[in-house]
């Protein structure tokens, strides 16, 4: 239970007591419980009025998730398809890394890898039009997840711009997102061990 009466008196981490950190952890637990709502708001913020794409990034995200769902992908991958471009909001030039970092405590190593690398894999479809190397993804050929990422991008991401595709609404995916975010590792830094 969050104790709102606890008033901190410390001004640096080294001054904080165990009681102070207990109060911080209570706050963190309550704040982190609202993470699904913040992610849903981030997805909604992709619903811009104008786009040079056939659908905007909000519709694209819903369509990618719908395609993954209809393909029988596991729930974690459906959620990855739903949130794969949310990193665009704060970091458009490396949005895959940001989306991957956001989901790392909640998804498998494979799904994290797909999210992190989907941008370079997507380049296969357009880099050659922009003066880049469409085969840049090949530098990751040794990864056990290369084919999984290629499939994700080919079947869910690059095809998800069809304004006539029967796309499911965000409310359909909300319970999946909440379930995936409910199985996280929590504070990952607490699981780190010092190296000798």
TrEMBL record:
Residues 57-124 form the HD domain. Pfam families: HD. InterPro entries: HD_domain, OP_Dioxygenase. SUPFAM superfamilies: HD-domain/PDEase-like (SSF109604). It comes from the Bacteria. This is Phosphonate degradation operons associated HDIG domain protein. It comes from Ruegeria denitrificans.
């Amino acid at each position: 239970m969050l104790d709102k009466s606890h008033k901190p008196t410390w001004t640096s981490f080294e001054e904080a007591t165990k009681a102070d950190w207990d109060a911080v952890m209570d706050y963190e637990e309550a704040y982190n419980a609202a993470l699904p709502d913040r992610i849903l708001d981030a997805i909604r913020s992709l619903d811009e009025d104008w786009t040079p794409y056939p659908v905007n990034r909000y519709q694209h995200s819903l369509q990618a998730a719908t395609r993954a769902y209809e393909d029988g992908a596991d729930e974690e991958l459906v959620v990855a398809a739903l949130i794969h471009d949310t990193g665009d909001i704060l970091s458009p030039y490396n949005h895959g890394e940001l989306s991957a970092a956001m989901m790392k405590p909640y998804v498998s190593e494979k799904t994290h890898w797909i999210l992190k690398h989907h941008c370079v894999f997507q380049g296969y479809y357009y880099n050659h039009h922009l003066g880049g190397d469409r085969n840049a993804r090949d530098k990751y050929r040794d990864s056990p997840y290369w084919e999984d990422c290629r499939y994700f991008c080919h079947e869910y991401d690059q095809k998800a711009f069809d304004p006539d595709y029967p796309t499911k609404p965000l409310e359909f995916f909300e319970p999946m997102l909440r379930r995936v975010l409910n199985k996280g590792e929590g504070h990952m830094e607490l699981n780190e061990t010092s190296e000798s």
